[in-house]
Amino acid sequence: MSDIQVIKCKAAIIWEAGKMPSVEEVEVAPPKSQEVRVKIVATSICRTDDNVLKGIFPHLEYPIIGGHEAAGIVESVGPGVTCVKPGDEVIPLCVPQCGECACCLSPKANCCLKSHIYKPLQNLMPDKTSRFTCRGKQIHHFLWISTFSEYTVVPVVSIAKISNDAPLDKVCLFGCGFSTGYGAAINNAQVEPGSSCAIFGLGGVGLSVIMGCKTAGASRIIGIDTNKDKFAKARELGATECISPEDFEKPINEVLVEMTGLGVDYAFEVAGHVDTEATALASSHFGHGVCVLVGAPPTGSKLCIRPLQLLTGKKLIGSMIGGWKLKDALPKLVSDYMANKFNTDALISHVLPFEKIAEGFELLNSGKCIRCVLLF
Ligand code: APR
Ligand code: ZN
Ligand code: ZN
């Protein structure tokens, strides 16, 4: 018999789509075989979490505990777990890496097939049961990691061990936002020195794209946002110019083509709207532009583009979690952070105690927040 017990702790539950999360006491079951129970130390709020709140992913079942950008410490492990042990510092993975499926084995892919993303889409644990209960009700998981809970259970494929000296209140951002944006520039686009880049949407993810473009040596980095309050931070992190579509009579793609001659070498959509996706493609270079879709539009939405743009040589590609195989990539990204290779602390605009999670969502929606880190 295992001596691992149920833990009672606080978690933020979204009882139904459209409702703010309420912080309540939940019971967190022990980890089953090939599962790990993690004490979350810090978790930040990403736009995707707000989308869960608003209910734009119709496949999700509620009540649900959201959250997917976090760092913590292993509390206990289920049978068969060898890659982590209690006391290890870890980052839960919003996209798993099983290491065995066709995509994990291919150097060209990073979306594991043993995941919640591959069919059927589901938001319980891999065995289709939940580890969370509250007031006698089963609560659904999110992306198999549900980090808006002081303790959470994750499958072993969804965890990366990082350096035990890593500051968890800072490296939580590597769980989604930073890795997503930075990797989109470095891995997916493979931005070249001297190139021109346009980034649509200057939230935490878009700013991380800027950091990637700068690291890659891009000479023109044009930030585009409807909210001009985002421009100062974008410039601080490497944008050479910032523009708002609302300041021009003509469509912003025409403005960008005029600014660059034939369009930008690399365009990134990081706002999560299909109309900005089409605009980003239209802004990219006539003969060899690469447009990378990074933002996540509502499930089921359709992108409408003129195919002739692709026939002339533009490429339209997508990026999931920056193209990283996260279990392999995160330890290195975190050690690069600790060696001061990136200034991800600049993305943290607010820090709040976990109980104030609703305030964190309000800050995100006010446009004043880049990343709000919640501390347990
Ligand atoms: N044109 C330009 N910028 C826009 C537009 C638009 N039409 N609409 C919104 N924006 C800007 C917002 O003002 C905001 O600054 O896009 C930015 C998006 O930032 P956040 O909401 O903070 O989102 P972030 O966490 O960066 O995530 C961006 O990536 O992971 C996905 O689901 C996530 O789709 C989201 C995207
Ligand atoms: Zn896999
Ligand atoms: Zn995210």
Task: Write a brief caption for the model.
With 376 residues, this protein is of the alpha/beta class. The chain contains 11 helices and 17 strands.
Q: Can you put this structure into words, describing what you see?
A:
The chain is an alpha/beta fold. It folds into 2 domains: 7-175 and 343-375, Medium-chain alcohol dehydrogenases, catalytic domain (Quinone Oxidoreductase, Chain A, domain 1, Alpha-Beta Complex); 181-319, 3-Layer(aba) Sandwich (Rossmann fold), CATH 3.40.50. The protein has helices at residues 47-54, 102-105, 168-171, 177-189, 204-215, 231-237, 252-260, 274-283, 308-311, 326-338, 357-366; strands at 7-13, 22-28, 35-44, 70-77, 89-92, 132-134, 137-139, 151-155, 159-161, 196-200, 220-224, 241-243, 266-269, 290-293, 315-318, 348-353, 371-375. Strands 3, 4, 5, 8, 9, 16 and 17 form a 7-stranded mixed sheet that branches. A 6-stranded parallel sheet has the order 12-11-10-13-14-15, sandwiched between helices. A 4-stranded antiparallel sheet has the order 1-2-6-7, with no helix packed on it. Strand 14, helix 9 (308-311) and strand 15 form a beta-alpha-beta unit. Helix 4 (177-189) packs across helix 5 and helix 7 (252-260) packs parallel to helix 8. Bound molecules: adenosine-5-diphosphoribose and zinc ion (2 copies). One zinc ion (ZN) binds at residues 97-98, 100-101, 103-104, 112-114. One zinc ion (ZN) is lined by residues 46, 48, 68-69, 176-177.
